[in-house]
Amino acid sequence: MRVRLAAFTLLVLFGWHLSASGQGLQYEIGRSATQEEISDWDKTLDPAGKEIPEGKGTAVQGKIMYQESCESCHGENGINGSAPELTGYLRIYPIHTWDKIYRTMPLGTSGAGERDIKLSPDETYSLTAYILYLNGMAAENDILHKQNLPAVRIPDPDFIR
Ligand code: HEC
Q1: pTM attached to this predicted model
Q2: What is the whole-number distance in angstroms between the Cα of residue 147 and the centre of ligand 1?
């Protein structure tokens, strides 16, 4: 760490020295971050939905999966479970709920934070549609997909988690 810091300081001083003779302040140090580094750091999800995969699903499909894989923790109809309630509170952009489910749910039962199964995009669209349905924001046969999910908005600010 100390070595790295020293090297950095040297570079900064040297770079500054080089550019001080030129016009304008150009440090001429470092390099552009690679695409890989940027995606490593960039964990936020664009509410416009460009980063999420294609897929689709309805609340009717989601309900079956919910009862099998989610209800044990989140409770029947999304209430009265041991995990956070999914009815009555939602993230401001439902696309973030989609992402949360896709990346982290269902939580494994071992308590170690790992997952027993990983959901497909279609399953995630269905489960999100079911959660929207529980919150009165979708009808049970509405098809939720990559194009319409970003447009879904929480109707009442009291809902926002
Ligand atoms: C073993 C228990 C367990 C199971 C099974 C489970 N969850 Fe969760 N879930 C949690 C816990 C605990 C949290 C809160 C901690 C966290 O955010 O990771 C959570 C958080 C969430 C959230 C975020 C709530 C928010 O907006 O803050 C959503 C959405 C969610 N779960 C959906 C699901 C869905 C859909 C399933 C089924 C595929 C599922 N969960 C299965 C335990 C579980």
Answers
A1: 0.78
A2: 24
